[in-house]
Automatic annotation (TrEMBL):
Residues 30-126 form the SnoaL-like domain. This is Ketosteroid isomerase-related protein. It comes from the Bacteria. The lineage of its organism: Bacteria, Pseudomonadati, Pseudomonadota, Alphaproteobacteria, Hyphomicrobiales. GO terms for molecular function: isomerase activity. InterPro entries: NTF2-like_dom_sf (IPR032710), SnoaL-like (IPR037401). Keywords: Isomerase.
Length: 146
C-alpha cells in the first residue's frame, strides 16, 4: 500500500491524524483520539443500500467502528494518498486519491476523493466522504449471469 501521509503527527490536520492513527493504532484508538462520541459519519450516501454496504449514516463510536470494519471487509487498499488538507476551528477538508481491489468481485476501484469534517471540541463531529460513486457501484456489483 502506498502511504502518502506525513510522519510527524503534530503537523497533521485532524483528517490526516484520523487516517494515520487508523493505520497505526486501529479503529478504537483512532476514534477515541479524534472523534466525538456522538459523531455522525456518512458513508458516501446517507441512505443505506442492500447492494453497497458502506452507504448509510453511522452515529456514535460503535456504528462508526462497524463502518470502518465494513470498509476493511470490502476493500484491499493498494494506494491511499492525501494530496491536500486544510483545517480551521470548525471544519477540516482533505483531498486525495485511492486504489482499492474489491474483495467481493476482485475488481479495481480507483477514485479521487474528498473528505469534509465538521469539528466540535477539537474532534470530528461529522464526517462526510466523497468519491466516484459510479466506479464504487460498478466495482461492487457482480456481473449478471449471461
Amino acid at each position: 500500500m502506498t502511504d502518502n501521509t506525513k510522519s510527524d503527527s503534530s503537523q497533521l490536520t485532524i483528517i490526516e491524524q484520523l487516517f494515520y492513527t487508523l493505520k497505526q493504532d486501529g479503529i478504537e484508538a483512532s476514534l477515541e483520539k479524534h472523534v466525538n462520541p456522538d459523531a455522525v459519519f456518512i458513508g458516501v450516501r446517507e441512505e443505506k443500500s442492500d447492494h453497497i454496504p458502506i452507504y448509510g449514516s453511522y452515529a456514535g463510536h460503535s456504528q462508526i467502528t462497524r463502518f470502518f470494519d465494513t470498509l476493511n471487509s470490502c476493500f484491499d487498499t493498494h494506494v491511499f494518498e492525501i494530496n491536500h488538507s486544510f483545517q480551521d476551528d470548525t471544519i477540516a477538508i482533505a483531498t486525495g486519491y485511492f486504489h482499492h481491489k474489491t474483495r467481493l468481485t476482485s475488481r479495481d476501484f480507483r477514485s479521487h476523493w474528498a473528505c469534509l469534517c465538521h469539528l466540535g471540541n477539537g474532534k470530528i463531529s461529522q464526517y462526510r466522504f466523497y468519491e466516484d460513486t459510479a466506479a464504487l457501484e460498478a466495482s461492487l456489483t457482480p456481473f449478471p449471469n449471461l
